[in-house]
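--- STAGE predict ---
source: upstream dedup step, 1 unique chain passed
mode: sequence only
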Amino acid sequence: MGRTLVTATINGPKATKDYSFLVDTGSTLMGLPLEEIQALSLVPIPRGMRRFMTATGVVERETYAALGAVEGRGFNTTVIPAPIPLIGYEFLENLRLRMNPVTQKLEPVPDEVEDHPPYLLPIVARDMSGLSFLRPGWRGLR
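--- STAGE serialize ---
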């Protein structure tokens, strides 16, 4: 899968700015560099310190409230400081958007789809009976 970038507008109390966000389904929330959070004057969420598991370990970060728009959909969301602008799976899930790995674009989750997680385009074979771990009598890894 390649890199998917999407433009989103963030509205802060003192500024509005468009950003090119990396869609990162391994991330949870929306992330922005701290300098950008400060430039937009985003407001910290009261008692909003949260712990996150990252590739380098557990970190504790302040969280901020933001309003904006992406793909024609308005949103309010939680933003955390990140090295680059990121959009994570919880954000996508809340807006009922998913990442299409073929077109490398965001697309709306159809109303009739209730599968979890809807933020990823399902690429699963309908008939998986040929897989050994689904056969009757399979006893697991030895």
